[in-house]
Amino acid sequence: MDLTQPRFELGSEFDRQLSERGSVGTSAQCLSLFTSCLVMLAVLGENTESPQSTLQQVSVVFRHGDRNILSVYPFDPYHDNMTIWPEGIGQLTNITRAPPASVEWLVNAPVVLSSTAEDEEIEVRISRGKLQMWELGRYLRQRYGSLVPDLYSPEDTFMTSSDVDRCLMSAQLVLAGLYPARGTQVWNPSLDWQPIPVHSTNPGQDNLIRMDAPCPAYSKEYELAINSSVIQNFTQEHADVFRILNEQGWPATRIDQIHGVYDSFKIEESRGLVLPDWATSIYPDKLRGVLETYEAMRVHTPLMKKLISGQY
């Protein structure tokens, strides 16, 4: 999402309100990383490409691959259709199927694996999340081949991930692309893969990667921001969005309560699925405007940026 030009800019009035309430300049009490579902890879090695190079370590931070919807909005016609979400809700995608009406979507889609035509119906299988992550591992091998050893060693490589299925799977797939079984590490001649550990921390104890780890200092700043008159006025100006959502059974009275439904709309649209009429009356433009303002608000002050960005 492009937040460089948000539809609603939080300006000097917002800063003044927070300053008057004593929030700006508060000392940080705890830190959390920006994203709640993240994978980190660190590789140590000796650069063999250039003797003059001082590069000794590469740290890679990446998100998971394409996934299915995380939440189901009321009266969602596709929520229990396992032909659309065969991997499960919130899971890393394997393939997706596009209906025949999605011509524009098909033109802009990723790799087409196969297609058939029967009775004027077209089924197209599109490679998605899993292949994305495997290709990322292959890219890292190509990009840092002079540093990354050919064979995996726990002395060289360390992978850590959020304790979430799609993140753990993404980490495994990146490692599969980065370290295919070679030489003495081949244990099954018919399988170009080897097990490599992925480390994770219980969500309740993860203050490195988990975005919503408890942080009293950030929570204080957040509540000051979302209850400011600027945000309250913005919410009133977009009352029609909240009214429509509530009429359709999605309870929302604050700008931080619409991300789930926007996310579901966006993913379903990307699959070529037809959204309900009531959804198209607010999606994408109106919902995006609210979401962009929310994203800008949550990192608006220097202290909020510091607290939410974490240890790295």
UniProtKB/TrEMBL annotation:
What protein is this chain from? acid phosphatase
A Gene Ontology molecular function term of the record: acid phosphatase activity
Q: What class of enzyme is it?
A: hydrolase
| Annotated catalysed reactions | a phosphate monoester + H2O = an alcohol + phosphate
Write down the InterPro entries for this protein, in alphabetical order.
His_Pase_clade-2, His_PPase_superfam, Histidine_acid_phosphatase
Q: Which UniProt keywords apply?
A: Disulfide bond, Glycoprotein, Hydrolase, Signal
Q: Which family does it belong to?
A: Belongs to the histidine acid phosphatase family.
Q: What is its EC number?
A: 3.1.3.2
User: Pfam families annotated for this entry?
Assistant: His_Phos_2
